[in-house]
non-specific serine/threonine protein kinase
Amino acid sequence: MGSCFSARVKAESLPCNGVNTKYAGRSGNDRSGSSSKVSSSTVPSTPRTQGEILQSSNLKSFSFNELKAATRNFRPDSVLGEGGFGCVFKGWIDEHSLTAAKPGTGIVIAVKRLNQESFQGHQEWLAEINYLGQLYHPNLVKLIGYCLEDDHRLLVYEFMPKGSLENHLFRRASYFQPLSWNLRMKVALGAAEGLAYLHSDKAKVIYRDFKASNILLDSSYGAKLSDFGLAKDGPTGSKSHVSTRVMGTHGYAAPEYVATGHLTAKSDVYSFGVVLLEMLSGRRAIDKNKPSKEQHLVEWARPYLSSKRKIFQVMDARIQGQYSSSDALEVANLAIQCLSAEPRYRPNMKEVVKALEQLHNSNNNDGSRGSRGENPRRGHRSSSNGPAYHRKNVNEVSNGKPTSHAGPCVSPLRT
């Protein structure tokens, strides 16, 4: 069984004038409350042809010239980032007609342009449309439309102004300030809600590439999952797993999936545990610049996570004093459960959401934890009555400014 864990980004990336920062974001107001639930058949479980996928999606079909005008001819200074799929450009469209607009007017968008030599990229382009053209949830990025013209393959998303979680955790540039404890917990909860929805009977989707670079942040640090190029329909009937070629990102993929190619929702739970550990520690899942014993975050941190005295050796020094030891241990314990070697011992994402919500509620009752008085859930819809999700249609975009997200972070980056 083949593995596709690295290097591909180098071979498939379009030259974007030397830009190598990963795009992360879209902007805009949070979701509206006028959502109707979708049925469990929103994403058909049987394989569909390209024509069927494009015809059934509720997305706008853009012409290449429209997107060329919206991005000012894909100017180099419009590049937001690049990855295995290609380059992502910033652009503007009118919020009602969705036609190209002058810079600084209308809606800001992110336009992801496929490397024309990439067959795998085409499959991921189609997967994005298949899933994001059918599903809507406050914690999933919003896809506005696509372009299929001659050899051109493009995807159009709303722009996420705060970029990716990866940038905020690991970049030391002055533009990216370290996220506070409260904001990290807000992001963790939002990302968990997105995964929980994907795993629910409403969607039955396995994400397969959960990582910090695929979590995009809107203007209020609301988390949205991006990049559905590797997503798969979950098992149906009596099947316990999906057998597939091993693909993903080294350091995040569940060990049993890497070993067997058997994909389940618990594979995503493991990846969530890795990202949760990244948020606690401020360290990357894999960091070759660290001493050899510290290069693999999960292996290095595991012995410290269950000890009240040792946990602080793992915690990010930049957020020292912003949390209580009990909160740190509680989140560390959740990470331990998600990272269990045996999938059956891992919680499901609904349970993870509940644990993070309880932490939030406990902090609200105490009223004294966290830093700068930030509310981890401010501006975020509570999921106590279930999150909002529904079928999307083009009119949703034209009736007001779209919700925030970003072209999935150009992220078939599998390194």
